[in-house]
């Protein structure tokens, strides 16, 4: 999912140091408050208590990257994701192709997180007065280009008037096949004690790119990070390869590494320990941000990489192609509390407290 | 789909006569302008010209009430619909259960319009600062109640921060079976010359209810119309019955009778003639609005009834149960221009020009 970093930026027209702003807004996971996760939990409760529930047809319900429902021909994946002007993008920037691309990628990444293959998309446009048709032509181009590259196609949609511009995408997909030829998928709740914790990478590039954009710095290293911000790539192919290799637990890194692993730990009721020196970051990020680079990698969202857990034997047997793309950054260190727990270890072996863990979409 | 009548209301805090406002805003169907239909047409063009298109898997694409895509187990229906605060509902009214109900019904009605059966829904919430969790609990209750009653269930969703409250639903479904036991569905583009034109009804009740709500009138007849406004019912069962009876052309009446029939005529390249005395309206609407009742029936949206066309022999063979629910209001009177054409005949046999034909979601 998209995160909401631009709200932080908008609160201060001086383009502040985002890292320092992050300290003000560390998220909580209290499901009774008005957090993103509280609202999702309440939706799950409300739906579960209603008579609508045909639980046999819902294989994975509310709370994972995508739902998995059964159909006569086998399981189907369903996901949805919205972007809002002033929250996830700024219309004043007029980067419509990029906004369209990223809108598609945020949904495609949810399918990748389940190890699935994208199929059909529906797009809803919330259109403010005075918007131009050229805006939407460019938006459509960017969105369709991402679908061309990674799979999926738009088959319908809706257009409504709205004071605030927004776009919602809903995307279907189907699961990949495991080594035995059966449909299988990746879930957040399937981590087991002693699993290794792995990520694709590098991480932090998108958040770094956004900071550079906002500062106006024109250093060439910065441009590489800006590209990471505007043109993230969903890990569709790698997700399928993980399913084929027997991996069963994964999610995408959209809201920040530590916060997202916390959700995975919570869904699996385990404790996870990760080590800072093992987290993949690019030389450009270190060059541009020095010691702050690791904070961007720990908490910056919108990288759309994958985090997964698997027994050591499964990780060792991954193909050479997959091994080149991943880093082992930690392990599932024990049974955890219901709320899940993530311990971050620094280069001295000490426990490290990230300044911010990730992004709650309602507390930015 | 929802229409946008509340924007008309908001423009004048005096709660004006909506009928007179309608004259200012008669919609155009020029696809090059910034209309809802122009934007949808451009999306269709952009998608068709992109390399994403696997046309074999798209049986009905952009522009009908729902898309129909092929899956290994047969065709699947996909639709999406959004509601926006200040456009489709007013948060200040705090009718959250009703808003949830109607949000579900507007999507369910798109499935009904295809003659299908609803399956799985995804809900996206755009949440403004200061919203309360109780608001969403009530919203969820109303939405789930509608799914309980008419089919379908929520299996996932997304939550994002937004200055303007909005909700998007995406809904899947599957087609009904025709008399031969094959999957079949209703399309806008399948009207044939000499078909009869039929509607379920009554019409205009929802728009009348909204006017009464805004005027504060407490007449009991008015309360029946208000109920029509807040608790519309999608014609799921009737849609299936039409498919079984061999009907192939239909859509739902969400934006206004004349405007919606114009879309059907346009999609089918035919001319349609309808007769005012045959349009079903309730005695409550006539009692409350007198001569204006017919205008509400011709242009008022959100009734979520169905309009369909079929040869006389098919209509005559409909079951008694279905016949009780429908009115024949006209016929497909000829081949039409590409843009479609609707002629309205009054009780004297004269051509009648409706003050407003329907609702374009971007020109309200």
Structure in words:
In chain A, helix 6 crosses helix 7. Chain A has about 375 residues and is of the alpha+beta class. Helices cover about 35% and strands about 25% of the residues of chain A. Chain A contains 13 helices and 14 strands. Chain A starts with a helix and ends in a 12-residue tail after the last strand. In chain A, strand 13 and strand 14 form a beta hairpin. The first copy, chain A, folds into 2 domains: about 170 residues, 60s Ribosomal Protein L30, Chain: A; about 170 residues, PurM-like C-terminal domain (Phosphoribosyl-aminoimidazole Synthetase, Chain A, domain 2, Alpha-Beta Complex), CATH 3.90.650.10. Chains A and B meet through helix 3, strand 2, strand 3, strand 4 and helix 5 of A and helix 3, strand 2, strand 3, strand 4 and helix 5 of B.
Reconstruct the topology from this structure:
2 copies of one chain form a homodimer.
Chain A lengths: L4 H6 L7 H5 L13 H13 L9 E3 L6 E5 L2 E11 L11 H18 L2 E12 L5 H18 L2 E9 L4 E12 L5 E2 L11 E5 L4 H11 L4 H11 L5 H9 L4 E5 L3 H12 L1 E6 L7 H7 L3 H7 L5 E6 L1 H5 L3 H6 E10 L5 E5 L5 E2 L12
Parallel strand pairs in A: 4-5, 10-13
Antiparallel strand pairs in A: 1-2, 2-3, 3-6, 4-6, 6-7, 8-11, 8-12, 9-11, 10-12, 13-14
Helix pairs in contact in A: 4-5, 4-8, 6-7, 7-10
